[in-house]
Structure formats: structure tokens, C-alpha cells
Amino acid sequence: MKKLRVGILGLGRCGAFIKSLYLNDAEFVATCETKAEMNYGLKELYGEDFGFYTDFEEFLKHPGGMDVVIIGNFFHEHAHYAIRCLEEGINVISECLANATMAEGVALVRAAEKSKAMYILGENYQYSTECLEMKRIYDEGTMGKVLFAEGEYNHGLISSKEEADKTRTMYLRSFEEHWRNHLPRTYYVQHSLAPLMFVTGSRPVRISAMAAYNVNGTTGDKMIGPNVKDRAAIMITQNDDGSVFRVTGCSGWGSGDNTYRVCCEKGQLEIMRDDESLLVNYDENYVPSGKERKTRYIPEPDPTEAELIEKAGGGHGGSDYRVIVEALKHIRSGVQHPLDVYFATTLSSVAILGHRSVLNNGQPYDIPDFTKEEDRLKYENDYETPFYGTDGSKPTIPCSKN
Ligand SMILES: NC(=O)c1ccc[n+]([C@@H]2O[C@H](COP(=O)([O-])OP(=O)(O)OC[C@H]3O[C@@H](n4cnc5c(N)ncnc54)[C@H](O)[C@@H]3O)[C@@H](O)[C@H]2O)c1
Questions:
Q1: Which residues contact 350 (CB under 8 A, 6 or more apart)?
Q2: In which element (H, E) is residue 335 found?
Q3: How many whole angstroms separate alpha carbon 368 and alpha carbon 101?
Q4: 277 C-alpha vs ligand 1 centroid, how far in Å?
Q5: Quick one: pLDDT at residue 172?
Q6: Given the DSSP bridges, would you call strands 4-9 and 26-32 parallel, antiparallel or unpaired?
Q7: How far apart are CA 112 and CA 47, in angstroms?
Q8: Are 237 and 193 in contact (CB under 8 A)?
Q9: Given ligand 1 and candidates 95, 154, 177, 347, which is best to mutate, with the most ligand atoms within 8 Å of its CB?
Q10: What confidence tens digit (pLDDT) does each residue in 126-146 have?
Q11: With contact defined as beta carbons under 8 Å apart, do 260 and 249 qualify?
Q12: pTM (predicted TM-score)
């Protein structure tokens, strides 16, 4: 099998994918990273021809070319680079978020439709062993159709470098305008919502959201950013199949664990907060023959996969490894990946319009269907953003309700 040549934009989080590339007949041939000091020891690791670039357009011209680029630069600046790759016929695996403005979402969809290359959202949480087991059972059909589902993603933000050093927590905000300092609670909705969409196939069509915060103030609070006083955004989506989801975006309550619950016509699937076991819970009228009414167990990967996950570094419980396995499989076969540009931009629309709903006291917003040109036209010039841009641009809306 021909080795796929892979480049990485932004050598932070996406460094976690490199071992998985080598385990899947691919090689890491070049990177674009603005921190020139990161160009250290890379040729020793990845070969004499390895390319280090600080300029993206130069990176795209890397001798020998690239089949795939993994986009892992700043969270809110992925779309432009993904579009440039698609224009050059290079397949894209983009970290979440796909697009930080509605207009970028429209441009991204149009670029993906024009390109011969494939766009894939590099979201990983639906590939946890528990979520895959949920999907396996849901697809069997014994639970019936989803009616309601919940997804919670929790990630406390450490408020200062000193605090992070004290708690030995990685300090992830390198400068005042950094995206993590201005991250509205709805914008990191991928980890809570993508697994629910992946398991059930439901697509959000309307969003309403409210912020949860501490009315008595936040002095000394270690769990919030300097600009974001909202502690969570509680987001309700109505979906195209009549179901309703409640998701948190990225919440910051104490002792937060991630969890998912899918309530269906004939029973419920729930990942338990204490040990990440899966509770498979049938209604007494619908217990399939040969099954228990309630079973609770910790799903495990098969031993061969477990070994590969360990070799790959085990990131996010094996889900990082599976992002690469699945993406490369689809790129090689040409069969469209389920986390395609429509899936990706729908998630972004929930994040962006969810935040508008938070700012407007829960007002509902329709989620556009970007397969339709009339929905794209509504948003093609909508550049509202809560973020500072690398190009010096400033936020146009607040990043927090409180
Ligand atoms: N799926 C997950 O579990 C997970 C976990 C962590 C981060 N992420 C995502 O990965 C992305 C990167 O996260 P991070 O924490 O590494 O972010 P980060 O802010 O540290 O940025 C990553 C790197 O990109 C570089 N960079 C930024 N703009 C660039 C440009 N124009 N050209 C070249 N290099 C550039 C930065 O110098 C930095 O080294 C984000 O989208 C984040 O949301 C996902």
C-alpha cells in the first residue's frame, strides 16, 4: 500500500497523532508552525527530507507534496487553511471547530463541494470505546428510535500561569488574546454533541441556550478564564427527527466528568459518571430475548486494537488513534467519511448560534442546512466573532453573558 504523506499545521495537540500515522501506512513529511523554536530534532525523527515551515503557502509547496493535512492551529482559525488545502486538492482532517463564523462555514462547504479532496472533521470523542459500544447497540435497533439525549463535556480552565504551575496543570493560554481566554461556553460543543449525532444520526435544526454562572461573583475561582465568567452553557437542540438533545458545550463545574445518555422508545443507554461503564437499560416490555433488562459493564477494545492504541500513545482513551484509522481508511477508499463538511459545519452552527442564544436570553435560532443554497445565502456575509484574530482583528460580540 502506498504510504500517505501527511503534513500538520500547528504542532500543539496534533503532535498526538504522529505515532498513529506510522501505524497506519502513513508518514509525517512536513509541518507548518509559527513558533520557529519548535524546529528542533525533527529531521532526526522523521528523515532528512522533513520540511519545517512557518509560512503556510510555502508549506503547501513542500517537495513531493502531501496527500493529507491535519489542521491543528488556533481553534478559531481552521477554516481558511482547510479551504486552501481543498483548493490544492489535499485531503483535510480538521481539529474541531471547523469554522468560527457562519460565513466561514458557508465558504468551507462550497470549497469542499468543489474539491476532489475529502474534508473530515477530526473530532475524537465519538470514537471512545464506550461511545462506539453505544452506537453498536443503537444500530442493532433493539432500543428503538432516540427521543432525548444528553451530552456533557467538562474541562475546567486554570485561571493563571502561577495556579497552573502550583497544580502541575498544563497552562494552555500563551497570550492575552489567545482563543482559550475568550472561548464562549457553547463553542466547544463538539465533544458533547458530536457523539450524540454520531450514535443516533440526528441533526440539530434549532438551538436555545442559557448560561449557568455564579451570581455572587467569581473572585478566586480557579475554574474560569479571565474573560469568561459563564461556567457552562446549557444548550437544547430540537433535531430533524423530532428528538431533543441537552448538551453543555465545554462546562467548568467542579469534579467534572464527561457523560452521555441516549433515551429511546424501548430503553436507555447511559455512560455512568463514576467509572465510565455503560448501562444498557431496557424497558420491561421490550427486553430482547436472551438479554437482561439491565446490564452494566466497561466496554473494552479488542486485544489487537488495544495493543495498537497503546503503541499510538493511548490519547483520549484510544479515540485519537481511531480518528486517524477512520480518516485514512475513508481517504484511501474515497467513500465519504460520516464526519463530513455538513456534519462539521452543523456542529459549528450550534456553537455559534448557541452563543447568540446565550447572549439573547435563550432566544431560539434555526440551524441552517448548508446542503441548501438558500440557507447559505442567509449566512455568507455573517462574520460575527467573539475572538481576536492573528491578523489583528478584534471581537465583534462578547465572549460571555456574565
Ligand atoms: N480533540 C481533542 O481532544 C483536542 C484536544 C486539545 C486540543 N484540540 C484542538 O486542537 C487545536 C489546537 O489546540 P492546541 O491546544 O494545540 O492550541 P494552541 O493554541 O496551542 O495552537 C496550536 C499550535 O498552532 C500554532 N499555530 C497557530 N496559528 C498558526 C499558523 N497560522 N501557522 C502555523 N502554526 C500556527 C501555535 O503556535 C501552536 O503551537 C484546537 O482546535 C483545539 O481545540 C482538540
A1: 186, 189, 193, 204, 207, 235, 237, 367
A2: none
A3: 13
A4: 31
A5: 61
A6: parallel
A7: 32
A8: yes
A9: 95
A10: 999 999 999 999 999 999 999
A11: no
A12: 0.95
For the beta carbon of residue 362, count every other beta carbon within 10 angstroms: 14
Q: What digits encode the pLDDT tens for the residues 377-394? A: 999 999 999 999 999 999
Please choose, from the candidates 312, 317, 324, the residue with its C-alpha nearest in 3D space to the C-alpha of residue 93: 324
Instruction: Give the pairing type, strands 278-282 and 26-32.
Output: unpaired
- Among 9, 11, 13, residue to substitute to test ligand 1 (most atoms within 8 Å of Cβ): 13
Distance CA 232, CA 17 (A): 29
**Cell numbers at 216, concatenated:** 455572587
User: Which ligand 1 atom sits nearest the alpha carbon of residue 54?
Assistant: 33
Query: What digits encode the pLDDT tens for the residues 72-125?
Result: 999 999 999 999 999 999 999 999 999 999 999 999 999 999 999 999 999 999
Q: What angle do CA 81, 84, 87 make, to 5 degrees?
A: 150
Distance of CA 95 to the CA centre of its chain: 6
Count the neighbouring beta carbons within 10 Å of the beta carbon of residue 37: 6
Q: Domains in the chain, start-ordered, CATH in brackets?
A: 4-123 (3.40.50.720), 126-314+340-379 (3.30.360.10)
pLDDT in tens, 263-313: 999 999 999 988 889 999 999 999 999 999 999 999 999 999 999 999 999
Q: Is 80 in the pocket of ligand 1 (CB under 6 A)?
A: no
